[in-house]
């Protein structure tokens, strides 16, 4: 583990907290020098609230569209079409054959221009230029995503973590391939990156074919002085612009934070990345107001042309961008993309579904639209959801049983912030670089691995989490050690018990069902589920085991049922099921006599309600004969479970009555309390 100079340590230690309004709150190093900012000392940092707001909310760029020409359309014919529609050519696009961007005519809208171009038989397709934004939200503490020991994030966080809910980075580092290779280049297609940050500077890509500062394109790649990457937004080589956005956040904080999660160096300062020895290629495509289709495509092409094998894309938009999909499909990169943070409402959406009008209005109006590029069907995309420190799918994270591949830590993630600072952020933007880092470790361990094989290895070695079942393709969180080794973690042995507080209860009464988990390794803070059989086993309660491996759930069942505890496969521990136990539930039957004393021949009404309310339930009115209960008459329940009997006092004396339910598949047998009728 290398150390930086004493002067640099002193500089970092002397930094003060910078207050930011509605932007990410930067956290300077506390007093104590390098040790205070080391990973094992991150819990001493003070959490400040963070949030990212969008300076602009339009889903598409207002002044340009993309057109793709049919094969064989000549330059002259293209000129004629452009003149007819009134558009002006801006430039061609890499990776997408016969594609160019054109300017929308004055007084025309994007939709009008797209429609006019599509109407010409020489045009294969036309589309808007979609806007892409960094996807982030905000909140709390240290690097539990690398090693979750059950630590409690220090300020404002509600619960301890579940040990083992992490990407198992330390397990990967212990393997012969270690912390990755500098020859593995990861493109961060994002906002800019503070390449001078002490956590990042040693791992930033350098273009060996370029002579810095001579104003010449030495390597002939079309970019002048692209020594460490390129800013496609401003078309220059400045990767960190130190620009403040309208929400007072630093324009390039997002790409800096993402880069730190992937590859922050092991230098006793700040944080450490998932793959701290790999190389980061910063490619700026997003600014305060976002980026667009062209900047992202340009960055993809540059990344591949200059040796990157993996692209991290913690960005997204809600329009189906066929040009971007074509570019991704054509590239040789594995693209790791954020599933999205629920659109305008901040609540996770199902990326498997789409609604009419997606991508044509504001982001807020597209709250239920899938996020792209994550939702593209491209074979070389890995779409990433976010989980918290207990292994629960976060409330903001998008999901999709067929469209979102895998999950990673995405809540309370500490990483680098410009100007030698740190901050905590939430978002699928933070989960995505965890997966990218794991992909980089695998690529370092298996040089030349194909993007198809790399994706397969990432997805086939996940560790299942209950909250991801039916929410992602794999139902699990990435496991760095398993992915690098190329095989899933060997499962352990597990067993569960089930104890019920009673075998028979009355509907509406409390029923406590308890369990004790036994596994190879710790049974502490493990997820368990109580399931009930109703045409199949269905989850009715999810809890976490105590320090002794016990858990319980209280139910208020209305019907008889069988219950079972289930322990899902978790962090390499094998799944387990308890034996099932049946609980008989008797209905609650109220009973009231309209009067308790009548004359001979006078009628009296016996009525009440059966709970749960069931229509057509057969009830029998019984009379005590002195030796047994004999049936007098029967009736059936009506709306809201109501019933009634009408009886007459036939002879003088005292008669005892009750209402009897014989039991059926829904409820066990039940009798009401006994009522006495005096006949005079």
Descriptive overview:
Mean pLDDT is 83; it is low at 1-57 and 136-141. The protein contains 11 helices and 38 strands. A hairpin with an 8-residue loop joins strand 26 (561-567) and strand 27 (576-577). The chain is of the alpha+beta class and 680 residues long. The strands form 8 sheets. The protein has a 7-stranded parallel β-sheet, sandwiched between helices. Strands 1, 2, 3, 4, 9 and 11 form a 6-stranded antiparallel β-sheet that branches. Strands 21, 23, 24, 26, 27 and 28 form a 6-stranded mixed β-sheet that branches. The protein has 4 domains: 60-134, Peptidase S8 propeptide/proteinase inhibitor I9 (Alpha-Beta Plaits), CATH 3.30.70.80; 168-485, Peptidase S8/S53 domain (Rossmann fold), CATH 3.40.50.200; 494-586, Immunoglobulin-like (Sandwich), CATH 2.60.40.730; 588-679, Sandwich (Immunoglobulin-like), CATH 2.60.40. The protein is 15% helix and 28% strand.
Write the SSE topology.
Elements: H1 6-13, H2 34-37, E1 60-69, H3 75-85, E2 88-92, E3 99-103, H4 110-118, E4 123-134, E5 137-138, H5 169-173, E6 185-190, E7 230-231, H6 253-263, E8 279-284, E9 291-292, H7 293-305, E10 310-313, E11 315-316, H8 322-330, E12 334-338, E13 381-387, E14 406-409, E15 413-417, E16 421-426, H9 428-445, H10 451-460, E17 463-464, E18 476-477, H11 480-485, E19 494-496, E20 499-500, E21 504-506, E22 511-519, E23 527-533, E24 537-544, E25 550-555, E26 561-567, E27 576-577, E28 581-586, E29 588-589, E30 592-593, E31 597-598, E32 603-611, E33 618-624, E34 629-636, E35 642-648, E36 653-661, E37 670-671, E38 675-679
Parallel strand pairs: 6-8, 6-10, 7-8, 10-12, 12-13, 13-14, 21-28, 31-38
Antiparallel strand pairs: 1-3, 1-4, 2-3, 4-9, 4-11, 5-16, 15-16, 17-18, 19-22, 20-22, 22-25, 23-24, 23-26, 26-27, 26-28, 29-32, 30-32, 32-35, 33-34, 33-36, 36-37, 36-38
């Amino acid at each position: 583990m290398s150390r930086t100079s004493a002067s640099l340590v002193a500089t970092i230690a002397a930094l003060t907290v910078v207050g930011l309004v509605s932007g990410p709150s930067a956290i300077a190093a506390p007093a104590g020098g390098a040790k205070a900012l080391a990973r094992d000392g991150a819990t001493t940092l003070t959490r400040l609230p963070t949030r990212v707001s969008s300076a602009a909310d339009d889903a598409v760029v207002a002044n340009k569209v993309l057109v793709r020409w049919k094969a064989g359309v000549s330059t002259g014919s293209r000129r004629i079409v452009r003149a007819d529609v009134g558009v002006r050519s801006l430039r061609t696009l890499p990776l997408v054959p016969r594609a160019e961007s054109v300017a929308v005519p004055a007084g025309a809208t994007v939709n009008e221009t797209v429609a006019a171009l599509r109407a010409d038989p020489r045009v294969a397709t036309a589309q808007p230029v979609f806007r892409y934004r960094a996807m982030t939200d905000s909140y709390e503490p240290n690097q539990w995503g690398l090693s979750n020991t059950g630590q409690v994030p220090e300020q404002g966080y509600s619960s301890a973590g579940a040990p083992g809910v992490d990407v198992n980075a330390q397990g990967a580092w212990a393997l012969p391939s270690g912390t990755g290779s500098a020859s593995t280049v990861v493109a961060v297609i994002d906002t800019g990156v503070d390449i001078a940050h002490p956590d990042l500077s040693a791992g930033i890509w350098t273009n060996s074919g370029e002579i810095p500062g001579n104003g010449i394109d030495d390597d002939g790649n079309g970019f002048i002085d692209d020594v460490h990457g390129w800013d496609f937004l401003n078309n220059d080589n400045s990767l960190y612009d130190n620009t403040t956005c309208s929400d007072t956040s630093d324009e390039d904080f997002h790409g800096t934070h993402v880069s730190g999660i992937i590859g922050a160096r092991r230098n006793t300062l700040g944080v450490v990345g998932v793959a701290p020895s790999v190389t980061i290629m910063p490619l700026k495509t997003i600014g305060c107001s976002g980026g667009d289709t062209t900047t992202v495509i340009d960055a993809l092409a540059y990344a591949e042309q200059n040796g990157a094998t993996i692209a991290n894309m913690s960005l997204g938009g809600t329009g189906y961008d066929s040009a971007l999909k074509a570019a991704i499909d054509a590239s040789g990169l594995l693209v790791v993309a954020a599933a999205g943070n629920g659109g305008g409402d901040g609540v996770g959406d199902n990326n498997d579904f789409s609604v009419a009008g997606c991508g044509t209005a504001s982001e807020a109006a597209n709250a239920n639209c899938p996020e792209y590029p994550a939702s593209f069907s491209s074979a070389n995309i890995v779409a990433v959801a976010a989980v918290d420190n207990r292994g629960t799918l976060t409330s903001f994270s998008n999901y999709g049983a067929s469209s979102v591949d895998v999950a990673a830590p995405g809540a309370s993630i500490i990483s680098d912030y410009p100007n030698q600072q740190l901050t905590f952020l939430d978002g699928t933007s933070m989960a995505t670089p965890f997966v990218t880092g794991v992909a980089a470790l695998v690529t370092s361990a298996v040089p030349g691995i194909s993007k198809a094989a790399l994706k397969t290895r990432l997805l086939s070695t996940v560790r299942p989490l209950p909250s991801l079942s039916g929410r992602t393709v794999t139902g699990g969180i990435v496991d760095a050690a398993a992915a690098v080794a190329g095989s899933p973690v060997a499962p352990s042995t597990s067993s569960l018990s089930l104890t019920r507080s009673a075998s028979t209860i009355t509907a509406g009464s409390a029923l406590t069902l308890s369990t004790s988990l036994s596994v190879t390794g710790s049974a502490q803070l493990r997820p368990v589920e109580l399931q009930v059989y109703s045409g199949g086993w269905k989850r009715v309660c999810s809890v976490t085991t105590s320090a002794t491996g016990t858990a319980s759930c209280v139910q208020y069942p209305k019907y008889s049922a069988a219950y079972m505890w289930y322990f899902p496969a978790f962090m390499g521990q094998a799944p387990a099921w308890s034996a099932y136990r049946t609980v008989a539930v008797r209905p609650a039957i109220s009973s009231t006599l309209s009067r308790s004393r009548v004359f001979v021949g006078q009628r009296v009404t016996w009525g009440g309600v059966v709970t749960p309310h069931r229509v057509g339930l057969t009830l029998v009115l019984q009379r005590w004969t002195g030796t047994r209960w004999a049936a007098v008459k029967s009736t059936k329940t009506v709306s809201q479970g109501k019933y009634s009997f009408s009886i007459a006092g036939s002879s003088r004396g005292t008669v005892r009555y009750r209402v009897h339910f014989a039991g059926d598949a829904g409820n066990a047998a039940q009798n009401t309390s006994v009522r006495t009728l005096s006949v005079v």
